Amino acid sequence: MCVGLAAKVLSIKDGEAVIYAGGAKRTISAELIEDLAPGDYVMVHAGVAISKITDTDEDQAGKIMRII
Fold it and tell me: To 10 degrees, the CA torsion angle through 62, 66, 21, 51?
């Protein structure tokens, strides 16, 4: 079983994204997602953004962030 972490993208540069998750900022690989932009929410596993959370509005993504 894989465990992913929901995170908000703060910035992107050269295939890396700075994210906010679990009360901390981290730098992760963003190379797997082509159209990622600051403000987007992503699922992160092992330091890599593996999918964009798209089927939600910002309020719903905020709820996801508070749950984890």
Answer: -60
Q: What is the dihedral of CA 4, 6, 11, 13, to 10 degrees?
A: 20
Length of the chain: 68
Distance in angstroms (rounded) separating the CA atoms of residues 36 and 41: 9
- Provide the domain count of the chain: 1
50: domain CATH number is: 2.30.30.140
Residues 16-35: tens digit of each pLDDT? 999 998 889 999 999 999 89
Rounded Cα distance between 2 and 23, Å, is 21
- Predicted TM-score of the model (pTM): 0.78
